[in-house]
Design a protein that fits this description.
about 280 residues, alpha/beta, about 40% helix, disordered C terminus
């Protein structure tokens, strides 16, 4: 059981300052550490081998989430009971939930993703909004994708907003970061993966692709910038440029919604009779 009073009470203590600096990208990159806030993210981090390094918790949160505190200690993390002022100093949210974890980077080398012969991949090219990046990662996880790739022109995977928006999915599937889009596409093609670029002005309609039965094989979806989509040179790399049909009067879909539709369309096609085969099969 936690003690009656916190051990860390000063927001200016060196340990608190070191954690707070991880809100900035340059410090995250230097230390290869990032922040995970809230019970869901901390629980996932504690269950992922050798990831959770340190955990700050208010007394109230430690009592409410005693199981998470236990999992964190079992995982070898240093657990600190902290005042609410300390948690507020470390947290990047307006209303902290009382738990903030410090985690090691866990991105996967792109070559390892290719070696696993993935059947469904989300590629984020030029995606700049961290909330969108985290939400697409969550959608990819829910749809059963086997990997996510963030290109070198996309937002930092470990941005606190991206981590929160992933709602723990960051810990569930391999993610490669900083991969040039040309390299990502070429590598996936060499691995037998069909490249589909999602674009509202695409020549091919998602419904037609499903009706033709062309989506049952290994597939990577390339998603572009929230405001201006994919540049022509990126669209040209794809095997097809596909639009999500708008059957009603909506002007368009936002990035995360379009990504969910596309990924689930592929997931359904791959699970249908005669769907996705191993790329090692003839």
């Amino acid at each position: 059981m936690p003690s009656a009073s916190p051990e860390l009470i000063s927001p200016r203590s060196p340990r608190v300052s070191a954690a707070r600096r991880l809100a900035k990208r340059n410090f995250r990159g230097k230390e290869r550490l990032f922040l995970a806030e809230g019970p869901q993210a901390v629980r996932e981090a504690a269950g992922y081998a050798d990831t959770l390094v340190e955990l700050f918790a208010t007394v109230e949160a430690a009592e409410r989430y005693a199981d998470i505190i236990g999992e964190a200690r079992t995982a070898g993390a240093r657990v600190h009971l902290a005042s609410e002022d300390v948690i507020a100093e470390i947290s990047t949210t307006v209303t902290p939930q009382g738990l903030v974890g410090v985690c090691r980077f866990l991105d996967t080398p792109f070559e390892e993703i290719l070696a696993a012969r993935p059947k469904l991949v989300a590629v984020l090219a030029h995606v700049r909004d961290p909330g969108n990046a985290g939400t697409v990662l969550r959608c990819a996880d829910a749809a059963g994708a086997e990997a996510v790739v963030l290109t070198d022109a996309s937002v930092d995977l470990y941005n606190p907003k991206a981590v929160r928006a992933s709602v723990g999915s960051l810990f569930h599937l391999p993610v490669a970061v900083g991969v040039p889009v040309e390299r990502a596409v070429a590598g996936l093609k060499d691995a037998g993966v069909r490249i589909l670029a999602a674009d509202g002005a695409g020549e091919d309609d998602l419904d037609d692709e499903l009706d033709k039965g062309t989506m049952g094989g290994p597939t990577a979806w390339v998603f572009g910038n929230e405001a201006w989509g994919l540049p022509e040179e990126t669209r040209a790399l794809a095997d097809a440029v596909v639009r999500v049909p708008i059957h009603g009067k909506a002007e368009s879909l936002n990035l995360a919604t379009a990504a969910a539709v596309c990924l689930y369309a592929s997931a359904r096609a791959q699970r249908a009779s005669g769907g996705c085969r191993s790329v090692t099969e003839s």
